[in-house]
Amino acid sequence: MAFAVFILVNATLLIRPAEVVPALDSLPIYYVLMVSGLAMTFGRLTEQVRWTSLRENPITACVTGLFGMVILSNLVRFDFPLLKESGIEFLKVVLYYLMLVAVVTTPDRIRSFLRWLGFCALVNATLALLQYHGYLDLPALKVLERVDYDDEGQASVTLQLRSVGIYNDPNDLCLILGTGFVIVLYQVVEGRGLLRFLWVGPLITFLYALILTRSRGGFLALLISLFCLFVNRFGVKRAIPLGAMAVCGLMVVSGGRQTEISVGQGTAQERMEKWKEGLILFTHRPVTGIGVWRYSEEVGLVAHNSYVHAYVEMGFPGGSLFVGLFYFASEGLRARYYRNPRVRDPAFLRLRPYIVALIAGYGMGIFSLSRNYIVPTYVIFGIATAYHRIAANPLESLDFVLDQNQCKRLLMTSVGVLAAIKTFLLVAAH
């Protein structure tokens, strides 16, 4: 029952039925489902935040640590109204993550959850495409008209696909489309029998919708996702030609603005300017940051880079914890851990490269978006945690704990990420 309620929580959150059917707007569907799910899983939630459990699950430790930094960043400024608002909102995210880990506890459940997640992505893509081609007329789905100017000042209008709720921006929509693409690709490649080819239709739908977003960030995220999948599934030697074919194929079917990737002009330079301004603020408050939700107030716009955003708003500790989500998710999915004698399902064990691809693609997608405090970001890490807890060899996974060595590696990784961002700005920003 708790798993079924959790699926409904995701459907309500990701599809936003009230935006499709306005009559539902007054009904607190999401909150009722969320509270019901929390009541059913309360014992398993509290167990996860005990010290012994946090030590064995570094991703969960980073999530709860980020909640502490969300509070601290505004507490030191005595901004109690913002502290209360941001703290409550991020607490909802933490509770969602803990519920995911609490209910997705078997191979069948994680595959079922991924199929439902793919279904939610397909609904978003279908609604957006129906609006784009004139079969729907919903204000929430109105196509974005982007105006670009060439060197001579001539304007050109580009229509960009967008969907409901969280995905009302083309770049955000690409996050769920890329996630759905990888999930469906797993069903096609690793599934059994002829029924797996029924997933080819959704696969094409995701690709077509992603192309119509005209999002460069989404295009790059899909490329990174596919390359990481090829490397982890087929090895480096076969990944290089497969990756080259994927790039050529996507360049042919996409074309236009989406493949005109350059950091030398346009929105790329505008965003890098905001990164630079934010990093100047970071040097003034390197420990606790400027405070969560204050980036746009200080700079005039959000960072459009989740990593910069984390360091600036929550200081070096908060930025390190955010980077730690990706570090521990990647480290936890290393192949040496996955020889669990209790798991005898080859198809489930072959899911690992696809989860790596989800993490890599999402990590690339939020390089041009500030999405540190929303649920979809933590869906990815919840899946990684759930998979590791199910599939890891109980003996070898004892090495993957939050100890002094892992903390040192995280510290070095965080310093490396900061240095890489600053080097990139020195080279690319005018």
Can you give a write-up of this model?
The protein is mainly alpha-helical and 430 residues long. It folds into two domains: 106-248, no CATH class; 262-430, no CATH class. The chain is 69% helix and 3% strand. The chain is built from 18 helices and two strands. A two-stranded antiparallel ribbon has the order 1-2. A hairpin with a 5-residue loop joins strand 1 (144-149) and strand 2 (155-160). Helix 8 (170-190) packs parallel to helix 10 (216-234) and helix 10 runs antiparallel to helix 11 (236-254). The mean pLDDT is 86.
Record the SSE blueprint.
Blueprint: H1 2-15, H2 17-20, H3 29-48, H4 51-56, H5 58-75, H6 80-103, H7 107-132, E1 144-149, E2 155-160, H8 170-190, H9 200-213, H10 216-234, H11 236-254, H12 267-284, H13 295-299, H14 306-332, H15 346-349, H16 352-365, H17 375-391, H18 404-428
Helix pairs in contact: 1-3, 1-7, 3-6, 5-6, 5-14, 6-17, 7-8, 7-9, 8-9, 8-10, 8-16, 10-11, 10-16, 12-14, 14-17, 14-18, 16-17
